[in-house]
């Protein structure tokens, strides 16, 4: 179950170009920290909010907490690339952005 929303930035874009072995960089927390930097963290108030966010994602919607976090930290003016592991969620974010 979700316990928070997190936004991270890529520190070394060259590592992302070699996608065949990218998984190796994430075998340890130290390796992941060399590539990603956490810039925002939003803990849910309670389990009810976490459950609502989970249900929203399952229904193909963006929950309020995630939407606020994305609006605050991933600004359209900045022209950042947002990597999302879940293709369904990525499509929803792309449509709403």
Automatic annotation (TrEMBL):
It holds the Pfam family NOP5NT. GO terms for molecular function: snoRNA binding. This is NOP5NT domain-containing protein. Signal peptide: none annotated. One of its GO terms (cellular component) is small-subunit processome. Residues 12-60 form the Nucleolar protein 58/56 N-terminal domain.
